[in-house]
């Protein structure tokens, strides 16, 4: 008997998923939704000092809030009736960013006082030759805080045109004199392995194709890297910051993209939600059902069995993985993982914000580069 195609598998969804699709199409009523576990960005909770711990009533959201000792982004968001994702986005923060007592955060939708202009987030635009240590010295801020505020590590790369958030928003002073343009710096062609680095980490950090990275260094599928080891970067790291609008789909990529579209249509997901799913899969796996990834990440969306997304065999099933990404009534992990349709107000989020809210990637800004291409794929595949 021949093996069924991916399109056939999308039709032959498990009974539980088909029942959920029936709910989505109006043939049945959903059961009571399972409670979603809260997601936290850091340990601790908001204290009653400074801004106070009580949830603010609607209509009383100020333009900004000053971080008090013990505050977290999620706690501040809950206090003012905001989503964590929109609070992060409004302040140019990532999901791994830290906040500090005395730091001022903008509250989306807050009304500035009549006598004050709306606060602005202090940012620096990276130019060729910039380094994080150089930026920290120029603005007189602590390097560790600058890295944390931008979700970066000491080995992270920055690129011309990138916006770097200064940790004490609105209080950092401008450099005493305009910086002289630095000579154009050549992107690195080699990288030195640091303690804890994996081939997957390096490929994602440098934004290069993992298979090309492994091939360029004659490494196997699951290599063990040694600190101090020098590896070749197969192409300039900065090139991939903007995805080509002419990316050619291989047969495997096309099948997986079609699967994402078909399941989205079956679940009644709007076009924008399907574009978000295509962009997420393109960034996470290159639209391939890969059997490797960061830590225990696997499959089309690089879902982690250790985080409740399913067994290794389940997350390698592209039909189930796609249903889990969309979530909602068809979520195969109800109450454990959160899909796109489980995120309140996802329709108003950018592609990057929405994909990041599901994926919780260490590189949240990378999804945006796929939006135009994903839109074109949806138009082509229907």
What would you say this structure looks like, in words?
The chain is mainly alpha-helical and 382 residues long. Helices cover 32% and strands 5% of the residues. The protein contains 14 helices and six strands. The strands form three sheets. The chain has a two-stranded antiparallel sheet with strand order 1-2. The protein has a two-stranded antiparallel ribbon with strand order 3-4. Helix 9 packs antiparallel against helix 10, helix 10 packs across helix 13 and helix 10 packs across helix 14. The chain is globular. The chain starts with 5 loop residues before the first helix and ends with a helix.
Write the layout of secondary structure elements.
Layout: H1 6-11, H2 15-24, E1 64-66, H3 73-79, H4 84-90, E2 104-106, E3 123-125, H5 132-139, H6 143-149, E4 163-165, E5 190-192, H7 199-206, H8 210-216, E6 230-232, H9 251-266, H10 271-285, H11 312-315, H12 318-326, H13 351-359, H14 371-381
Antiparallel strand pairs: 1-2, 3-4, 5-6
Helix pairs in contact: 9-10, 9-12, 10-13, 10-14
